[in-house]
Specification:
37% helix; Translation Initiation Factor IF3; 17 helices; BirA Bifunctional Protein, domain 2; 3 domains; 5-stranded mixed β-sheet; Rossmann fold; alpha+beta; globular; 11-stranded mixed β-sheet
Length: 496
């Protein structure tokens, strides 16, 4: 039974007002996404075309993501450093394949301090070149290896088509750069990082991913091989959520990164690089959001709980003191909690925090205080229940854990329902109508077939799952397009 100090009509009216400002996902998913970014105050457009301003709430989500990855990197033995934003143009040209891959996106500085520069500077699109030049100075012997360095930084890639968080001219990311004695050590590093990426994506972001190797045409420019994690968004399109590269010795040879081996011979190091970016904020929005706005997994939410005091005109005297007491109790248990003390109607506040995706809302009114209970509402399901104020942190923590698990399972079920396997090219093309999700098919490994598939369907080869890399589950049968013997089981999708 509704309590006298809660107005369901007020709540419905406020919710309707808010929802009308967000385009329904089913009508226009792209516009829904932009509406959520704007209305939830995650980011705004800057005066520079293609750039965005990350607002405090959006940055707070990024901080949770950043902290989760950073702790994993450090646990694996990596340390953080920082390298310059500007790179001499000549450095970028030392690795031919690398510069060719990034040439269309590179921004240059040709004038500074009122004078023309003798050598143009590149605004980093990635840092292999500048870091490689430093490693060539720092590494002398096998005793200096491995070098395990990560940096949190911004990079610039001059994109023609941009969308907040997903693809912007400037974005934030981490980029790890490591140097090793042997190929096998570098390969183990690249795959270990891929595992970290997948684990954080699933355990923290609640976003199920597929791990695998990129094709030659999709790999990082200059790499020996590239691995990725791929996620499926709410509109059936794939998102590359992170990449890890075994660079081989390409950059070591370009920048003369050598060391004296255990046998006294001079050898080039084996390198890796790997990165995830603020694109993951967009991934969280599109994986879990609904027509009312954000739905945030508790482990990535800036606020896991919002407390909304409810009462008559004297609520500041009758309800607010107990609300503050509960906030202190939850915060003391390590729960990220905020108390909404604004002079707005409760229904307006409900809609506001629903829009922002806070996992749990606690409502406290005069009758709740009489019964020593709080009303708890889940953002993901809308389910409500009353909990005792005594020992409240324990059931709240359990509820947050349950929401985290439920969001991941819901996203995984969505992905699995939209993943299909086909055996013929006609079936492949039919499956790729619209935005179907992942389509799995046998592939011969030829660039010609891959390019033709993309031309015919707009689908790209996202990756070949790791089991297929090692040959444990090598596909049987023939390539879905050319009917030659298949070498890989490949996952295709239309992607961001």
């Amino acid at each position: 039974m509704a309590q006298h100090d809660r107005s369901s009509d007020t709540v419905k009216a406020a919710k309707t007002t808010f929802v009308t400002e967000i385009t329904p996902r089913s009508h226009d998913f792209s516009q829904w996404y932009l509406d959520v970014v704007r209305r939830a105050e995650l980011a705004d457009y800057s005066p520079v075309k293609g750039c965005m301003v990350i607002r405090p709430y959006g940055y707070a989500i990024w901080e949770q993501i950043q902290q989760a990855f950073d702790s994993e990197f450090k646990r694996a033995g990596h340390v953080n450093a920082y390298f310059p934003l500007f790179i001499p143009e000549s450095f970028l040209h030392k690795e031919a394949e690398h510069v060719e891959g990034f040439a269309p996106q590179v921004a240059y500085v040709t004038r500074a301090g009122g004078e023309e520069l003798e050598e143009p500077l590149v605004v980093r699109p990635t840092s292999e070149a500048i870091i490689g030049s430093m490693y060539s100075k720092w590494i002398q012997s096998w005793r200096d290896l491995p070098v395990l360095i990560n940096q949190w930084a911004n990079v610039v890639r001059w994109e023609k088509v941009t969308r907040p968080f997903l693809r912007t001219t400037e974005f934030l990311w981490q980029e790890g750069h490591t140097a090793h004695e042997t190929h096998d050590e570098a390969e183990a590093e690249a795959l270990m990082i891929l595992d970290i990426y997948a684990r954080v994506a699933e355990d923290v972001l609640g976003m199920p991913v597929v791990k695998g190797q990129k094709s030659e045409s999709e790999k990082f420019a200059g790499a020996l091989r590239t691995y990725s994690i791929e996620a499926l968004m709410g509109d059936g399109r794939a998102l590359q959520a992170g990449t890890s590269h075994n660079l081989g010795q390409n950059f070591a040879k370009a920048f003369d990164i050598t060391f004296q081996g255990r046998d006294k011979s001079v050898q080039h190091v084996w390198g890796t690089s790997w990165g995830v970016s603020t694109r993951l904020v967009g991934g969280v929005i599109m994986t879990h959001g609904d027509d009312s706005g954000l739905v945030l997994p508790p482990r990535v939410a800036p606020y896991q709980v919002v407390i909304v005091p409810i009462g008559r005109d004297d609520w500041r005297e009758t309800v607010l003191p107990k609300a503050r007491e509960i906030r202190q109790q939850l915060a003391g248990a390590g729960i990220r909690v905020t108390l909404d003390e604004r002079d707005e109607r409760p229904g307006w506040k409900f809609a506001e925090w629903e829009l922002r995706g806070v996992p749990l809302r606690l409502e406290i009114g005069p009758k709740d205080i009489e019964k020593s209970t709080v009303r708890v509402a889940r953002r993901d399901t809308g389910a409500k229940q009353d909990l005792s104020m005594n020992g409240l942190p324990t059931p709240i923590t359990e509820l947050l854990d349950r929401i985290q698990r439920d969001l991941f399972e819901r996203a995984r079920a969505y992905r699995d329902e939209r993943t299909q396997r086909v055996a013929s090219y006609d079936a492949f093309k039919a499956a790729m109508e619209g935005r179907p999700g992942f389509v799995i098919a046998a592939w011969c490994g030829s660039a010609e077939c891959e390019a033709q598939i993309k031309a015919d369907t707009q689908a790209t080869l996202r990756n070949m799952p790791q089991e297929g890399i090692t040959g444990k589950t090598a596909p049987t049968g023939n390539c879905v397009r050319c009917d030659n013997p298949a070498r890989y089981e490949a996952w295709f999708a239309k992607a961001y």
